[in-house]
């Protein structure tokens, strides 16, 4: 696989969300003090760091969904 390519077979339900998710990834990494490789290759990163980024992204997405749901039922 070349740089920037992923082995993941996940497909975004909303393709336009890809850019927002990428931005969120960089924001979370910056907050955690973790540098994301410029070439897009994560193989040299510690599993602990990539897991921390993914975990924080998931938490943030759940918070956003909860806020949107709470707003619907007011």
UniProtKB/TrEMBL annotation:
PROSITE patterns: SASP_1. The keyword Nucleus does not apply. The keyword DNA-binding applies. InterPro entries: SASP_alpha/beta-type (IPR001448), SASP_alpha/beta-type_CS (IPR018126), SASP_DNA-binding (IPR050847), SASP_sf_alpha/beta (IPR038300). It comes from the Bacteria. Keywords: DNA-binding. Belongs to the alpha/beta-type SASP family. SASP are bound to spore DNA. They are double-stranded DNA-binding proteins that cause DNA to change to an a-like conformation. They protect the DNA backbone from chemical and enzymatic cleavage and are thus involved in dormant spore's high resistance to UV light. This is Alpha/beta-type small acid-soluble spore protein.
């Amino acid at each position: 696989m070349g740089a920037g390519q992923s082995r993941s077979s996940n497909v975004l339900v909303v393709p336009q969300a890809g850019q927002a998710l990428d931005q969120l990834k960089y924001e979370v990494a910056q907050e955690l003090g973790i540098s994301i490789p410029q070439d897009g290759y994560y193989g040299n990163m510690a599993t602990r760091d990539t897991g921390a980024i993914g975990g924080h992204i998931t938490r943030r997405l759940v918070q956003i969904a909860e806020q949107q749901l709470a707003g619907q039922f007011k």
